What we know:
Blueprint: E1 4-6, H1 8-28, E2 38-40, E3 46-48, H2 50-69, E4 72-74, H3 77-99, H4 106-125
Parallel strand pairs: 1-4
Antiparallel strand pairs: 2-3
Helix pairs in contact: 1-2, 3-4
Amino acid sequence: MTIIKLEPEQYVELYAELAELMMTYLNAAALTPEELLIYQEENGDIRYTELGQQQFEECVSDVEAVLAANNIIKVSDVEYNVLQVALDHMIEHQEGIQSDDVPCDDAEWNDICERLEAAKRLKALFS
């Protein structure tokens, strides 16, 4: 599984752009003025109607669900820091077990090595 991590600003830009694209297509399907979702003001600004704003929020929810289902996530600075500390701790712990003279059978040793390598891969992924 590949996880695509985005800064919160990048994530918002991505889902907003995709939702706006959806809105453009939905607006084009409007048959009457009451069904319009987007309109242009005299000064050229593009605005959503009240119905359009509700539809945009639904589009955002749909886009976020698709992004999450495809492992495209936003990670806050706090979450990122917690993840880094947890991974550092896991690596340190597994390396400590390897350096101890504690007897382990092959299955236990393989499990320790697998966890250490997994933690190192995650650290590289999120670095």
